[in-house]
Amino acid sequence: MANRKEVAKLAGVSEATVSRVLNGIGPMKESTRDRVLEAAKRLNYELNAVASSFARGKSGNLGVVLPYVPKVHLFSTYYYSELLSGIGEAVRSKGYGLLLLFRDPASVYDYISLYRTQRVDACIVLGASAVPSEMVGINQLAEERLPFCVMDQRFDNPLVSIVAADHEQGSYEAVKHIINKGYRKIGFLNGSPQYSNSQDRLLGYRRALQEVGIQLDESIRYEGNYSRTSGTQAASTVYRDLNKLDAIFVGNDRMAIGLMQGLRGLGCSLPDDLKVVAYDDSDAASLAEPPLTTVKVPFFEMGRLAAEKLLSQLTDKDSEVSVINEKLQTELIVRKSSGN
């Protein structure tokens, strides 16, 4: 691979001039600029993005800000691991660095200082919710028009960049699948309501029921927090309501697996006594007993897309910071838990 010295020799200029041209620093004769760019092209010389950023007073880092939750192993969860893998793939391909940062969800996080101190050039926020302390920090980022993106969480502020999945449609298709199999009494175990994707799942659930004239029964709606433990804890209540249920739609695979384990412990035979449809299509879904019918969410692609969009804004000198608004489609994966 060619180096800067070879580019300088071919162009007939100093290495410092090569650096200035490729980093866009200072005034430069057009003829000199053209010679350097032509030499770099002929030698297939690629400017290191991190070194370039430092030359322009930038960090060369894409920041990823995650919530710190004691005793919760975020990196072992399918949701976070897939998003981070997608982000990492984009960062690697662009030659940037990745800086992981943790925030306290109960406090306002000072995102602005990350840019002011040049720790990051842009950031992606994972696990955000609609609690006031988190909304303040996100809105500050939007007002400053800094390059950032929130993953999978909607905000009312139109200046907030978002990459998400179409959870309303995914949930609609999951519940419609149960209805099409002839079941009418369909419960719903959802996640925490402060997450917009929980609200979207509820909208999809309601739409599927209303479309065929099934009245919403609030007594068979249950709430967890997307953890397997909360699914296990819901099992006793769901078991008590089995006479009111043909099937249940669960907001993610982890809760569904916990629920099924809890129900089996109480003597249920699944899917004979209760049909279960879940959400995410995590690695554990196909290994569950019975294997889970679930909605596949493209978390890896979402993470990669968010990072690519942000890094393109940083590396393209003609690009301005613009609002990102992307919604990716989901896919229903049918297995044994929803019945034959």
Keywords for this entry:
elongated, 43% helix, Rossmann fold, 16% strand, six-stranded parallel sheet, six-stranded mixed sheet
- Reported by name, the CATH topology of the largest domain is Rossmann fold
Number of domain modules? 3
Distance between the termini: 58 Å
Tally the beta strands: 12
**Number of helices, where a helix is a run of at least 4 consecutive DSSP H or I residues:** 12
Rg over CA atoms, rounded to whole Å, is 25 Å
Q: Can you say what the CATH homologous superfamily of the largest domain is?
A: Response regulator
Low-confidence stretches: none
Shape: elongated
Structural class: alpha/beta
Strands of the widest sheet, in order across it, are 2-1-3-4-5-11
Structure characterization notes:
The chain is 43% helix and 16% strand. By secondary structure, the protein is α/β, with parallel strands linked by helices. It folds into three domains: 4-47, 434 Repressor (Amino-terminal Domain) (Orthogonal Bundle); 61-165 and 300-328, 3-Layer(aba) Sandwich (Rossmann fold); 167-297 and 331-338, 3-Layer(aba) Sandwich (Rossmann fold). The strands form two sheets. A six-stranded parallel β-sheet has the order 2-1-3-4-5-11, sandwiched between helices. The protein has a six-stranded mixed β-sheet with strand order 7-6-8-9-10-12, sandwiched between helices. The model has no long low-confidence stretch (mean pLDDT 91).
